[in-house]
Design brief:
heterotrimer; B: about 220 residues; alpha/beta; 5-stranded parallel beta sheet; two-stranded parallel sheet; elongated; C: about 200 residues; mainly alpha; two-stranded antiparallel ribbon; 8 helices; 2 strands; about 0% strand; globular
């Protein structure tokens, strides 16, 4: 039996200066198997997949509800997240799952010495520009995710594994849309 | 053995790939159960029917609609034409023939109704056979809905108790665009009042033919 | 074997316990996202500059793993696939949404799930990105009356690829495995060509 260490010890990111002291990332195939088993666990225990963007919707609906309840109640998109008032809007499955994501990522980051206060960007772009683009990208992503009824986790991963027809179309389009704008944005990253 | 010799020389990634390929090949023969295996517990069904656990009343359904519940799906089994003329607010039109292919989930609370109730009962059996454990029929069908909800009647010699109940029913009837029949001894069948327009009921606001019921399970 | 999964839908635990399950599953999700390097926007977007195809590798390995698991468990009769929620297919908004989301991915550097991993590991751009998601959600809600037609266009119900193409389930599973393996092999070649060291499958 061959030992697995050479694969794991291989530095995954040669030129990432800011993570110089950190451990190398996991073999992507092993990380993928881990992620797949977590997804499978969600199917088996809950009968549903993973998600992320839905938690943001619940959070926004709740926050807005506390300042403008009438608006949220009349809004067709947000009002279901408030429901009939019998349960707290943040007492939702996805909200707890995303809190877990935060905890799990923090745990992994601490174990690997990868928790660093930093801004991820290419060398040629200023912090202000990078942060503005991060904000704009988040907005665009949110609109896309709500239109598509799910993001990379809820649609691509979950629907991909269940062979959901719309999810596969969605996934192709995610890669298509990303490659289409990548060249324009090379200044942000390269 | 040649096999073991070559296996040990494979990298981890190649071993993983070989494993995935083997499992994928085996999966060619897989027949995953997607609700097509029919398991009917005849005794269980008979008990449910006997205990009247297979239907909801018009009053219960009306209450859900008024309260804005979104945890059920109401299925109108009649023809598209009949559906277009009138349907209970929040109902979706799925004809009996389209039912086996309708995008319903086996764990959803599904309420079926037809004109009288026979079709709904038959559809209920179909759904139970497909493993839908949460299917119900509307007791008495649309006829009962009209009688109880849209056009409740009050007899002239009603007791105060009956009157109080009628007051509540009348409020519900107005909510759904119907008209309470006070003091009349005539039955609904004898004098058919005008049916409400489909878009008239106040409850239908936001619940048009495609009710945007948010599935909280989505991402 | 007695069919008993999904546990939640067979009533093995209730709503309150499901939130604990959610938190536990989230921990696993976040842990492997960070292990794979997905708390770093540069690692993520490298996918789109072809220098590091970890996004593709991790995503498709996860899909293949979970898909095989679901297939076998349903085959053995342990898991009732009809009880696993399928997001209904709406072709038009899912195509448009996918394109927007892909563009947002490169512009912002994350997707909603990975942005949480980024925030947890101190990335300030991840935090700003998450705020952007909040703003985008508000904008979407505000625009919903306008977008409603698009949101509901091309409805096809809960639909799987085997149903769509009238193919046996197992055959599609096998095809996806083959496609993924070919993709992994190709990814190694691409990485070798575009500079970063590659990993062949």
């Amino acid at each position: 039996m061959a030992t697995t260490t050479p694969d794991l010890a291989r530095p995954a990111e040669r030129d990432a200066v800011h993570v110089a002291a950190a451990q190398a990332y996991m073999n992507p195939y092993l990380a993928g198997i881990g992620l797949g088993l977590v997804l499978l666990a969600a199917f088996v225990t809950m009968g549903r997949g993973l998600g992320a963007s839905g938690a943001f919707s619940a959070l926004v609906a709740w926050a807005l509800h506390s300042v403008a309840p009438a608006y949220v109640a009349s809004n067709e998109f947000l009002s279901p997240y408030i429901g009939d008032g019998s349960t707290h809007p943040l007492k939702a499955w996805l909200v707890f799952e995303v809190m877990g994501v935060f905890a799990g990522a923090l745990l992994s980051g601490l174990l690997a010495g990868r928790v660093v206060r930093t801004i991820e960007k290419g060398p040629r772009v200023s912090n202000a520009v990078r942060l503005s683009l991060a904000f704009a990208g988040g907005m665009l992503m949110a609109i896309g995710a709500h239109l598509a009824r799910g993001c990379t986790s809820g649609q691509a991963l979950t629907g991909g594994a269940l062979l959901n027809a719309g999810s596969w179309a969605f996934m192709m389009c995610v890669f298509g849309g990303a490659y289409a704008v990548a060249w324009l944005l090379r200044g942000e990253w390269k | 053995m040649a096999m073991r010799w070559s296996w040990s020389r494979l990298s981890l990634n190649q071993k993983l790939a070989a494993g995935a390929l083997t499992l994928g090949l085996l999966a060619l023969f897989a027949r995953p159960n997607r609700g097509n295996v029919i398991t009917l517990d005849v005794k269980e069904l008979a008990t449910i029917i006997d205990k009247e656990g297979d239907h909801v009343t018009a009053g219960e359904l009306g209450g859900w609609i008024v309260a804005g519940h979104a945890d059920y799906r109401l299925i109108d089994l009649r023809s598209e034409k009949e559906y277009a003329e009138y349907h209970i607010p929040t109902a979706e039109n799925v004809t009996l023939t389209a039912l086996p292919d309708a995008p319903l989930l086996a764990n959803e609370k599904i309420v079926l109704y037809s004109e009288g109730g026979i079709h709904a009962s038959q559809a209920w059996m179909l759904l139970r056979a497909k493993g839908f454990k949460n299917a119900y029929t509307l007791k008495g069908g649309l006829d009962q809905w009209k009688e109880d909800i849209l056009f409740p009647t009050l007899a002239e010699n009603a007791t105060p108790q009956e009157r109080a109940r009628f007051e509540r029913a009348a409020a519900l009837a107005k909510f759904f665009g119907g008209s309470p029949q006070a003091g009349g001894t005539q039955t609904v069948a004898a004098k058919m009042p005008e049916m409400p327009k489909v878009e008239a009921p106040a409850a239908a606001a936001g619940a048009t033919s495609t009710p945007p019921k948010k599935k909280k399970e989505g991402c | 074997m007695e069919m008993s999964a999904p546990f939640f839908k067979y009533g093995l635990f209730g709503d309150e316990a499901s939130l604990l399950v959610a938190f536990a599953i989230g921990i696993g999700f976040g842990f492997f996202l960070e292990r794979a390097g997905f708390g770093s926007a540069r690692k993520l977007v490298a996918q789109f500059y072809l220098t590091d195809l970890a996004v593709f590798k991790v995503m498709f390995t996860a899909i293949v793993t979970a898909m095989l698991g679901v297939t076998y468990l349903a085959w053995m009769g342990v898991l009732d696939l009809s009880l696993v929620y399928l997001v209904p297919t709406y072709w038009v908004p899912q195509v448009v949404g996918g394109l927007l989301l892909g563009a947002g991915f490169v512009i912002g550097g994350y997707c909603p799930g990975t942005s949480m991993a980024a925030v947890a590991t101190g990335r300030i751009d991840g935090l700003v990105y998450a705020l952007g998601i909040g703003a985008g959600t508000l904008a979407f809600a505000g625009l919903f009356p306008v977008l409603r037609g698009l949101y509901l266009a091309g409805s096809a119900g809960a639909q799987t690829l085997p149903q769509l193409f009238h193919l046996p389930y197992g055959l599609v599973v096998f095809a996806v495995v083959l496609m993924a393996l070919a993709g992994f092999y190709g990814a190694g070649l691409v990485e070798a060509h575009f500079g970063a060291r590659g990993e062949r499958s």
